[in-house]
Amino acid sequence: MFELVYCSVAQSNLTSQDIQDILETSKKFNSDNQITGCLLYHDHEFLQVLEGDQQVVQDLFISIKKDLRHFNVLLLAEGEKESRTFAKWSMAYLELNANEIQKHGFIKDLKAFSQLADKPTHAIDLFWTMAVHILND
């Protein structure tokens, strides 16, 4: 099993429909290619972890880097691992605006979850660390 974590910055004109298009395309591709993972989006920042066959994940990342809906695509970590962290999700997705985060106490809950979540690899640990960082900014 191979995993890859990256972050990027969304174009300022990115719309909710653009995000829905990304999700629909991702879910179909990921399901067809046994890719799992999680995509977080907050305040024009993306953070994503992808899991699957190494060649498929790396080819997908090349395609993701070419997508003009975001820029400053930064590979944070990649490598082999024993098993999937997001095995049940072809693409878990979460987007919260600032009002929802404050209303639901989401940052506090995410911080608690990130401390309790299983982090079998450096990449997954980095994913949770970055998730909390993005929401704190």
Averaged pLDDT: 80
Q: What does the overall shape look like?
A: globular
Report the C-alpha radius of gyration, rounded. 14 Å
User: Biggest sheet, open or closed, and with what strands and sense?
Assistant: 5 strands, mixed
Uncertain runs are 103-107
- Structural class comes to alpha+beta
In order across it, which strands form the biggest sheet? 4-1-3-2-5
Count of beta strands: 5
Number of helices: 5
* Share in helix: 40-55%
The ordered H/E elements are EHEEHEEHHH
Provide the β-strand percentage band: 25-35%
Distance between the termini: 32 Å
Please write out the topology.
Layout: E1 2-10, H1 16-32, E2 36-42, E3 45-52, H2 54-66, E4 70-80, E5 92-95, H3 98-104, H4 106-116, H5 122-136
Helix pairs in contact: 4-5
